Amino acid sequence: MKIRINGKERSTGKADNLIELAKDMKLNLKHIVIEHNLNIIPRDRWGEVSLTEGDSIEIVNFVGGG
Amino acid sequence: MIVDDMLKIGDREINSRFFLGTGKFQDKRMIRDVIESSGPHIVTVALRRVDIASEDENVLDNIPGRCILMTNTSGARTADEAVRIANLAEAAGCEKWIKIEIINDNKYLLPDNLETLKAVDALSSKGFTVLPYMCPDLAMAKRMVSAGAAAVMPLGAPIGSNRGLKTEEIVKIMVNELDVPVIVDAGLGVPSDAVKCMELGCAAVLVNTAIATSNDPVNMAIAFSEAVVSGRRAFLAGMRPMINVAEASSPLTGFLREEK
Fold first, then answer.
1. Fewer CB within 10 Å: N-end or C-end of chain A?
2. Would you call A63 and B47 a contact, using CB atoms and an 8 Å cutoff?
3. B174 lies in which domain range?
4. Is it the case that residue B56 has pLDDT exceeding 80?
5. Which residue of chain A has the CA closest to B60?
6. Domains of chain A by range and CATH?
7. CB pair distance less than 8 Å for A61 and B45
8. How many CA atoms does the CB half-sphere of B97 hold within 13 Å?
9. DSSP sequence for B165-196
10. Which of B32, B49, B55 to mutate against chain A (most A CBs within 10 Å)?
11. ipTM, two decimals
């Protein structure tokens, strides 16, 4: 299945929900925020949101900034 | 910190008038040393898309829990984008403290005051403590305060330029006319710039580039935080006006000469 992650097309591999996707990408889950088709998904619901072909996902975290 | 001189922003008491930005540090672990040695209470961070390729450690791992994390909305070009970034920061579990930074000028990185005003309105009504980064302008600052800004942050000079308080005249007027803290943000290059801001009566300063890019960020941060205290003490003590002729500080009579 193809989805867009942070503006780039990507295959989801075996992941079929947000938490599996984040783990697949080896992200540090502690401080990331996930937006699924423009909706911010609370951390405790990452396992409930299934991925669908063409989904647009934004994953952000904190960086240094002034 | 000076006894009985607490800075209040929103409903929080802030125990340092030296605010630190965390961008541009070559080694993120340095941020912790800088914070521990210079004692800022408010520390700014930014949000970005995760870099899947890099295993970079998260900046938050280097910020002690006693600090108030203030997420900036850098990268936003409109009020709507700033609101979206603020919502993401809240979802990340941050306190609802936001530095609104809306920029659509890539050369001087000067903020868009009108979009900023819209974002102040939207975010303060959602319960955020909102500190707008702005081009110094009294009328616009008053509108931002009416819209709910907890403080205003006029720039001293363009971001990262190290040019100092080039906007002194307008900042001085803002300090005199506004009932909220005025915090100079951006452009300060050396500790004496921070002293200047505080002598004028600014409530605080926010410094990033001058510290992060110096040869010794820890010592530069200490120098800035001491400068902030020094300038604040002078402001509280009350400075005398300048005059154009000498006024002797030693007695001029009764010594080695006959009185007329």
1. N
2. yes
3. 7-237
4. no
5. A62
6. 2-60 (3.10.20.30)
7. no
8. 18
9. -TTHHHHHHHHHH-SS-BEEES---SHHHHHH
10. B49
11. 0.88
pLDDT classification of B58: cutoffs 50, 70, 90: confident
Residue among A25, A63, A66 whose CB faces B48 most closely: A63
Residue A62: closest CA among chain B residues belongs to which residue? Answer: B47
The token duo for B65 is 């829990």
Q: Which of B47, B49, B92 sits opposite A6 (nearest CB)?
A: B49
Of A30, A31, A64, nearest to B28 by CB-CB distance is A64
**Total domains, chain B:** 1
Partners of A35 on chain B (C-beta within 8 Å) are 88
CATH number for B218: 3.20.20.70
Q: CB under 8 Å to B255, separation ≥6 — which residues?
A: none
Whether B193 and B180 have beta carbons less than 8 Å apart is answered as: no
pTM of the model: 0.90
DSSP track, chain B: --TT--EEETTEEES-SEEEE-TT-SSTHHHHHHHHHH--SEEEEEEEE--TT--PPPGGGGS-TTSEEEEE-TTB-SHHHHHHHHHHHHHTT--SEEEE-BB--TTT--B-HHHHHHHHHHHHTTT-EEEEEE---HHHHHHHHHTT-SSBEE-SSSTT-----TTHHHHHHHHHH-SS-BEEES---SHHHHHHHHHTT-SEEEE-HHHHTSS-HHHHHHHHHHHHHHHHHHHHH-PPPP-SS---SS--SSSSS---
Catalytic residue of the set B28, B96, B99, B196: B99
Find, in chain A, the residue whose alpha carbon is nearest to that of B22.
A64
Q: Is the pLDDT of residue B260 over 70?
A: no
